[in-house]
Design a protein that fits this description.
The chain has one domain: Amino acid/polyamine transporter I (Up-down Bundle), CATH 1.20.1740. The chain is 77% helix and 0% strand. It has 18 helices and no strands.
Length: 451
């Protein structure tokens, strides 16, 4: 196979790769998790710590994952097997590809369930169901929806069908066409909602203070670990998606420069989301709460009390759905690419096969909120919580750490030099950080999750 072309197709330009990778990184976590963590862990101090972690841990591992993908030009599993062979090292390292594909698949199965909730709320908001609502009514609507297994599975099925359709169309007609339109639309929606929040809430300054004011008393060692963990997880590291996308990246594109741009776009979405959410929350005397409660209970109350809230609330959930779909297609990509290579089937058949299996596994998560709520696995956790825990707390950090170690210590020097030819000024610094700083940082977060 040519070292400059992937059998699965290629991004048409550097911009398309950046949009695709940023789309993979930007997801549900950016919309509510980052702003909440910043507000509760020291505001501006947390944001600064997060940015330091992004550039000391996130960007180097992101660059390493892109490098491995572009050097291998196949699915993450086969790329890692071939790169280990070329580097004269153990076939053990192909485990990185398997772990990434498995983590992406597991995340996709339950991610599609939550994304289905977001799609259903476009309809709920647009129909006026939350106009003038209060906390009891918003909680009741959310509770009744998640308790209805048929509705939850229906929206889960619709979201998975969209993901399968896009993935089946291939890199050019499917993935690239989607991010070409959805990512600019996502940023336009973000800016529209920021202006709405600034003009209609009367509490924009209060929201900015909550998000950016440095509060040293609220910042602790735990806050630093939270910042490090968020920096790692927000960039889609360790789940095979970036490696799969890197396989379709043009040869003449700067890896480190591109990784930095992706990180900046991802962080921008998180910060803009905070500028949207917190003025809305404070304008209605509400308390910001982490998790589904913020997105599906608190914000509908806020939009329901605001001028034009019916329209802009619906737009907000369109934004969330856009972010979800650009992430879901990347989560599916490692498994689809491997199935196409392994079984020698068409792209469409590979996407349908992977999608149906992910949909079926996702039923366990869909039922975790209703008819299967009493079914528990690890330490009394529901099926949904178990999938979330195993993928995010074990597979992703372990995969990211192994990526840094392999790229920094075991990958053949000539391969690294060839891939970073356009990054000579930064390649030595990247190598030092990838060998020592990044794996140590990830290991600290990994160990602390079990203490």
């Amino acid at each position: 196979m040519s070292n400059t072309e992937s059998a699965h197709g290629m991004w048409s330009s550097k911009l398309m790769f950046i949009l695709a990778a940023a789309g993979s990184a930007v997801g549900l976590g950016n919309i509510w998790r980052f702003p909440y963590l910043a507000g509760e862990n020291g505001g501006g101090v947390f944001v600064l710590a997060y940015l330091v972690c992004i550039f000391l841990i996130g960007v180097p591992i992101l660059a390493a994952e892109i490098l491995l993908g572009r050097a291998g030009r196949q699915s993450p599993i086969n790329s890692m097997r071939n790169l280990a062979r070329q580097s004269g090292t153990s076939s053990f390292w192909q485990l990185i590809g398997w772990m990434g594909a498995l983590a992406g698949f597991m995340i996709l199965s339950f991610y599609a369930v939550i994304a289905g909730w977001a799609m259903s709320y476009i309809v709920e908001m647009a129909s006026g169901n939350f106009v003038g609502t209060d906390a009891n009514r918003a909680s009741q609507v959310f509770g009744e929806f998640t308790a209805d297994a048929v509705s939850v599975v229906g929206w889960h099925t619709l979201f998975m069908a969209l993901t399968i359709y896009i993935a089946a169309r291939g890199v050019g007609r499917g993935l690239e066409t989607t991010v070409r339109y959805l990512m600019p639309a996502l940023f336009v929606l973000l800016l529209m909602l920021v202006f709405y929040s600034a003009l209609a809430t009367g509490h924009f300054k209060e929201g900015l203070m909550f998000l950016f004011s440095p509060d040293l008393d609220a910042f602790s060692t735990d806050s630093l670990l939270v910042a490090m963990g968020q920096a790692f997880f927000t960039l889609s590291l360790g789940m095979g998606a970036i490696m799969a996308y890197g396989a379709y990246m043009p040869k003449d594109t700067s890896i480190i420069g591109t990784a930095t741009t992706i990180a900046l776009l991802d962080t921008s979405v998180a910060l803009l989301s905070g500028m949207i959410i917190f003025p809305l929350v404070f304008a209605n005397g509400l308390q910001p709460s982490e998790g589904p409660g913020l997105m599906f209970i608190t914000l509908p109350i806020a939009f329901g009390q605001m001028p034009g809230g019916q329209i802009f609330g619906a737009l907000f959930f369109v934004l969330v759905s856009f972010a979800a779909i650009t992430s879901s297609i990347s989560l599916m990509e490692p498994a689809v690419a491997w199935v196409v290579e392994k079984l020698a089937v068409t792209r469409a058949k590979g996407a349908v096969l992977v999608g149906i299996i992910a949909w079926f596994v996702g039923l366990g998560s869909a039922f975790s909120f209703n008819i299967g709520a009493d079914f528990t696995l690890l330490s009394g956790m529901t099926f949904f919580d178990t999938m979330d825990y195993l993928s995010n707390n074990i597979l992703l950090p372990l995969g990211g750490m192994l990526i840094a170690i392999f790229a920094g210590w075991f990958l053949k020097d000539q391969i690294v030099e060839d891939e970073l030819a356009g990054d000579k000024a930064w390649s030595n610094l990247w190598r030092v950080i990838t060998r020592f700083v990044a794996p140590t940082g990830v290991m600290v977060v990994f160990v602390m999750t079990f203490l």
